[in-house]
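Schema walkthrough. Field components (list of strings):
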Amino acid sequence: MFSRNRNDKPLDEVEAALDDNVASVPALGLLRRPEPRSGAAVNKPSIISAGFELVGDLVSTGVVQVEGTVRGNLRLSAVTIGTTGEVVGTIECRTLHIKGRFHGQASCEELTLSADASVEGTLTYLQMSAQRGARIKGELIKSQAVASPAPPTDGDAMLPDTEASLPEHAGTKD
Amino acid sequence: MPESQQKGTVIIGEGVVIKGEITTVGNALILGEVEGEVHAREITVGETGRLKGRVFADVAHVHGIIHENLKVNSSLLLGKSGRIFGAVEYAEIEIERGGEIVGTLSQSTPANGTKLGG
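Field assembly_structure (string):
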């Protein structure tokens, strides 16, 4: 076990190996941080990794990082669309950081567009910034009041039906 | 500033109100209020600047307020105090945190290669 060169292995394998060996190798045990016990307050993002395609809705108070593709509605605290990520649908969140592609409707308080971002649709924001090179096509709306991720008037119709609300010609490539 | 850079430069000072059309091959610095149409190679709207109408430029720096229509052939910088209401067409855009655009955005093909204005 110890003769194997761990540097050649992908991270998750190393992590698994660590799990196996933590008891027997005290020095490695020090590397592992104690797990946070505070339930919902955990800020670890959920990751939709590259090559992964999710069709459906995501609802959470947590943080999601999209490196793959999501078709559906996201209602979260924070969303990051990574450089390889693509979201087609609607996003409602507090903090939205787009580095990849987005097509649809987004409503957030803090909107950040990186240089590689490509956005088509309607963006509602309270405060925004865009790095030079970001591509935005569509409508920008400054929300008047402090945007609340859960508007009280919406009631049961919190999330629009996925099928009905998805924009046409979904997979817009460059 | 050197004389060569002053050629075609127009400055609308703070407190000045203009209605009409401004066309210049050079730079326009708007610190006052302009209502109408502005054509310039480079336009800078200062924090006190207010522009209402149609604006055409190669390069635009917006720190004040523009209403209605802005077409930028090359580079648009929206500063943290800048506000744009209306239709914006740009090739390249940068928005500082705090800058606001309310309206529609569309991207034209970036003016590649040629350095604007020589």
